[in-house]
Amino acid sequence: MKRIILFLTLVNCCAIGTFAQQANEQRSALSETAVALDARSAPALEGRLLTQVLNGAEDSPVTNIKLSVKNITPNFYNYVSGWATFYDANAIRCGEGLFKIDALASQESAEVDTPGLRLRCSPQSWRIVATNLMTRTVDIAKPTEPAPPAEATAIQERPARMNFIISIDGEEHPIQVNNPITLRLENGSHKIVLRPVP
What we know:
Elements: H1 2-24, E1 28-29, E2 34-37, E3 43-49, E4 66-71, E5 77-87, E6 93-101, E7 109-113, E8 125-135, H2 150-156, E9 163-168, E10 171-176, E11 181-185, E12 188-192
């Protein structure tokens, strides 16, 4: 009897977890805009299909499509990646492809493709899911971590390092504050250190 109750409890937990996951997944018709959410379940990206002919089959799958991805947040993303997933008339997944964008400003759109896609049906709906939303300081597609203690915050509030470039006779050398650079010149090696004014 205990085993049966344990088994039923396990089945109910799986069903609740699956229902919660599906509640976040927003499928759209092929002619509609699909929305990808970030880790906080806030809308982050909008996707629109640019490829109109999506007639895949088991023996001749569609292997690539074009879509437009728009950043609908106020954040600037250094890197964006995600999945475009397609479903047939019975809501069965029949293909998915990965998309990547190197930089995407707020309210900016970019055309991307999905190499590696193997669409084996004529889909009726689709969705996009963001897997990486890398901002200048943090990846907000992943769950947030607890706030650091006050001492760690005080250490992090030091001024950020500034990058400089030294140009000597047209040859450029990157340098950071307090990081020395050694230059080999005709009359020997010279060590140059750039320091901020106290």
